[in-house]
Write a structure and sequence with these properties.
single chain, 266 residues, Rossmann fold, two-stranded parallel sheet, 9 strands, 15% strand, globular, binds nicotinamide-adenine-dinucleotide
Length: 266
């Protein structure tokens, strides 16, 4: 179906997981500013900074789908976010348009909607309510995706990923966890679904304590298999009671909603 897929952020945690699985299915070009690792047979590996427009245009050339996972993936100084996540994401979309790509799948984040109340059970139509400059940059990517779909017909999914790890790590991630196999399923469905159009999808496993409603994008056929509840006893054994008025508890974005978010991913 695709002649070559570009994966940005290929050296990152999620990129390293996805790379071999994608490579089994489609010709792959893996790209990052950091070393990606030894190329697999038939894989193309490109080193490039997302803020370097000419390099990104070159990296997208010949690719008919893009998985845009490259980014500063935590809160950071605005100027750094601006270059890597905002300018970088524009470069990727514009490169994709020039390459006549059919689809761009963007790793957005729950932090694009981090200031919604946790118990609001928001769906794909939820307004952006970013909790950090990082969240603002993800919301920008969602807006670009909307514009490139409406104006140029490039199909798009923004994945509002929760906490994507091998296992959930704390109480919050009992709600927000996306297992790695469920991430792969989500990416593959976005690439293979007959109709993608413009889709906002929450990247979450089949968690009993899920915070988000993917009902409006059920046509993609994403059916997550894992459930964070299996880890609940272990994670809650020594957990302290929560203050429901603490912004880190009240809002979706957790500690990213505090005034000084610690520099951690999630
Ligand atoms: N892991 C999660 O729980 C989670 C949650 C929400 C969203 N996401 C998003 O998913 C994507 C992947 O996440 P991850 O956990 O693998 O993050 P990561 O930090 O491990 O990987 C990001 C990769 O992007 C690359 N990158 C950063 N700036 C760059 C630049 N200027 N030019 C080129 N490459 C650059 C980094 O070198 C890194 O390899 C990110 O966009 C992140 O924001 C992840």
């Amino acid at each position: 179906m695709y002649k070559r897929i570009l994966l940005t952020g290929a050296a990152g945690m999620l990129g390293q997981y996805l790379r071999p699985h994608l490579h089994k299915r489609w010709p792959l070009r893996s790209c990052d500013v950091k070393p990606v690792g030894k190329p697999m047979k038939g894989e193309e590996v490109v080193t490039c900074d997302l803020s370097d427009r000419a390099a990104v245009f070159k990296a997208t050339r010949g690719c008919d789908a893009v998985l845009h996972f490259g980014a500063i993936s935590i809160e950071s100084d605005f100027d750094q976010i601006l270059q890597a996540n905002i300018v970088g994401t524009y470069n990727v979309f514009e490169g994709a348009r020039r390459a006549r790509a059919k689809r761009v799948i963007h790793a957005s984040s729950n932090h694009a909607v981090g200031y919604h109340l946790r118990d609001a059970f928001i769906d794909s139509d939820a307004q952006p309510r970013p909790d950090t400059y990082y969240g603002v940059s993800k919301s920008f990517g969602e807006s670009l995706g909307s514009m490139y779909w409406s104006k140029y017909g490039i199909e798009h999914a923004s994945l509002r990923i929760g906490t994507c790890r091998a296992e959930p790590i704390d109480r919050r991630s009992l709600s927000t966890w996306l297992s790695l196999p469920d991430l792969l399923q989500l990416v593959v469905r976005c690439l293979e679904a007959e109709r993608l159009g413009y889709a906002i999808v929450y990247g979450q496993s089949n968690n009993d304590r899920a915070l988000w409603d993917n009902g409006k994008v059920s046509h993609l056929g994403f059916r997550p298999q894992d459930n964070a509840e299996e880890y609940a006893d272990r994670l809650l054994k020594n957990a302290k009671p929560e203050d429901p008025e603490d912004p880190a508890v009240k809002y979706i974005g957790g500690v990213f909603c505090t005034k000084k978010p610690p520099m951690w991913k999630g």
